[in-house]
Amino acid sequence: TIQQQQQTPNEAHLVQSNLEYARRFHHGGLSHIPAKKYAIVTCMDCRIDPAAAFGISLGDAHVIRNAGGSAREALRSLVVSQQLLQTNEVFVIKHTHCGMMGITNEEINDTVEKNLGQEALAELNGLDWLPFADLEQGVRDDVKFLEESKAVPDAVHVSGWVYDVEDGKVHSVGL
Q1: Which of 40, 29, 82 is closest to 63 using CA atoms?
Q2: pLDDT digits 0-9 by tens, 71-89
């Protein structure tokens, strides 16, 4: 364990919060298979609380988060979710004011090189950061990607949504 004097303030908060959580925890018997048989792909943005915003209780669903809420990046987890853990529905939820919207691979690579150097950039060579230019079109593209993927069964229902970080509301994005 990390000694108290070596902990960062965030580590100390994590440990203290977990102790409080564990004292009230009564969900040890939950199945690893989501009770409601769905998965959400959304952004890692700290302004999104999927459980609160989308009414997800512990054990209900898989929540897969990454920069930009990318379905392409989430595909590996979605295949596991569907093939091993019985989910049959996917909600792709991007959000307003996303940092991955309107930026380019080149801009991200330039930032990596400036901040971390050429060796770090070389290590990430060829990585597609999966930025998108238009929010609703980004959702449509991800839904289409999943619907056309041979790794996602035709029986899996896929829908697209936008979450507004200003008012907390979600709306459906039609194809």
Answers
A1: 40
A2: 999 999 999 999 999 999 9
Q: Which of 49, 81, 95, 48 is nearest to 151 (CA)?
A: 81
State the pLDDT confidence band at 174, using cuts at 50, 70 and 90.
Answer: confident
- The closest of 67, 126, 74, 75 to 100, measured between CA atoms, is 67
Does the structure show a pLDDT above 70 at 40?
A: yes
Helices marked H in the chain: 9-24, 50-54, 71-83, 105-116, 118-123, 135-148
Q: What is the rounded average pLDDT of the residues 105-132?
A: 96
**Residue 80: what are its φ and ψ, rounded to 5°?**
-60, -45
* Distance from C-alpha of 92 to C-alpha of 117, rounded to nearest angstrom: 34
Q: Which of 84, 100, 87 lies closest to 138, judged by CA?
A: 100
